[in-house]
Every structure is written in structure tokens, then in C-alpha cells.
Specification:
globular; three-stranded antiparallel β-sheet; alpha/beta; 29% helix; 24% strand; ten-stranded mixed β-sheet
């Protein structure tokens, strides 16, 4: 179980936002934290701490310059998502991203666009692609959501769909949208199912708020999934010490 760090960028600043409130009207966005540090500061910290496979997410337009700063600070160490498509993916890889993360480009009009998926794979290779399967629960099932997590697709997160999509990508990133940014604990059913169904590296995001949550997460997933934590960390205004999380995920014990 690895800790995957994050750098969420909104309006050019590193922020922690309740994801499902993200929308065009900025007055309705719920911000948990706005950092005074630059994206490059966090990227450098993750680099110095030897953390790999973290992700930069551009939340809306106008964040390209800030994201590029982070990529330059830690070349090859971070993935990037937010507006990725077949036309710009190669550029971000050239700027230093290890992978690009796609959601809306391949999930359009509520459906999986196979042409778009095959196009981006043909351009950058599956080994540089992460598919974001961020989802919400509906009728007891987890369904991929797009359009800033406001629109349900017709793609269920289940064993069959994961098995097919694994042949198109190197990793999955899965935000449990119902709890993301709310510090309410891990969505255990989803985490357990992902651990059972996936055979490629998969990062879970959403709800973790304590070392006890990490212990429980490791228990229910058998240590198979990686995890990312945002709002709960002290570096993002929370109570959970970043250093303790790094040590726990690296050594399997509290610092």
C-alpha cells in the first residue's frame, strides 16, 4: 500500500475542495483549504520524500501554468489530469508527467467513447495512461460520474468493466465522490470491491481522515490498493500529520 500524494489546482492555487461542489459558479464551490504555497513547493516536497505516482489535478481552466510548475519541480514523479485528451496528452508527458489521467474525454454524453479511448492509447501508449473511474453510489451500485462529478454515466464500476478497461491503461484512479473532501471515513464497500476486482495499480481517494482509517483500509483491501489523502492532512489544513501518513504507508506502522 503506497501513499499517493496530490496537488489539486483551482484558479491557479493549490486547494482542497469538496469535489461534488465544483461548478462554473465559483461562489458555490466549497473550499476546505487554500494554500499559500505554490504547486512547485508541494511537488518538491513529494520529490524529496521519495513519493511516486502522485497526481496533479487541474480543476477547471486557467491552471496550466501552475501545473507546469509542479511538473518541472518533479519530472517523472507525478501524473496529471483535468482536461486531458488525445491532442494535449503528449505535451504534458513531454513537460514531465509520468502519466496522464483521463475522465471526461473518454466518458462523454453518459457513455464510454471507445473511439476516444483507442485514439489516446494509440498516441501515448497504455503504459502512460491512467483511467479515472471516480464514481457515486446509485441503487447499491457504483457508477462513473463525469462533468465535474455532476453527471452519471451508464458505466458501472464492476468486475467485468474493470477487466476490459485494464487492457487500455496502466493504472486506475478512483475517487469515492460521495465522501471525497468530507473527512467521513473510507467508503469501505467500494474499496473492498476494487481490491477484489483490479489487477493493475489502483489508487483510492475519498474520506480517509486518520491513521485508524488507514489501518482499516489496509485491512479490508489486503494492502492491494494505494491511497491518496487531501483535506485531512495537516499540510492542507487538516489534523492528520502528513509525516505520519508517509511513515505508515512506507513502513506499515506509526512513526
Amino acid at each position: 500500500m503506497k501513499f499517493r500524494p496530490c496537488i489539486d489546482i483551482h484558479q491557479g492555487k493549490v486547494k482542497q475542495i469538496v469535489g461534488e461542489t465544483l461548478q462554473p459558479d465559483p461562489s458555490r464551490v466549497v473550499e476546505n483549504f487554500v494554500s499559500g504555497h505554490s504547486p512547485g513547493y508541494f511537488a518538491s516536497m513529494y520529490r524529496d520524500d521519495g513519493l511516486t505516482g502522485g497526481h496533479i489535478i487541474m480543476l477547471g481552466g486557467g491552471n496550466e501554468q501552475a501545473a507546469e510548475e509542479a511538473l518541472r519541480a518533479y519530472p517523472g514523479g507525478l501524473q496529471i489530469g483535468g482536461g486531458m485528451n488525445a491532442d494535449n496528452a503528449a505535451r504534458y508527458l513531454e513537460l514531465g508527467a509520468s502519466h496522464v489521467i483521463v475522465t471526461s474525454y473518454i466518458f462523454q454524453d453518459g457513455k464510454l467513447n471507445w473511439d476516444h479511448l483507442e485514439t489516446i492509447v494509440s498516441k501515448i501508449g497504455k503504459e502512460r495512461l491512467v483511467i479515472d473511474l471516480s464514481c457515486k453510489e446509485r441503487d447499491g451500485k457504483y457508477v462513473v460520474v463525469t462533468n465535474q462529478w455532476r453527471t452519471f454515466s451508464d458505466v458501472e464500476v464492476n468486475a467485468a468493466n474493470i477487466a476490459v478497461l485494464e487492457s487500455y491503461c496502466d493504472e486506475f484512479l478512483v475517487h469515492a465522490v460521495d465522501v471525497e473532501g468530507k473527512r467521513e471515513g473510507v467508503q469501505e464497500k467500494l474499496a473492498a470491491q476494487l481490491a477484489e476486482w483490479t489487477t493493475i495499480p489502483t489508487t483510492y481517494a475519498g474520506g480517509a481522515r486518520s491513521i485508524e482509517d488507514l489501518e482499516r483500509f489496509r485491512e479490508i483491501t489486503g494492502g492491494k490498493l494505494d491511497i491518496t489523502i487531501g483535506s485531512a492532512l495537516d499540510i492542507f489544513g487538516g489534523d492528520l500529520p502528513y509525516r505520519e501518513v508517509v511513515a505508515f504507508c512506507r513502513n506499515g506502522a506509526r512513526r
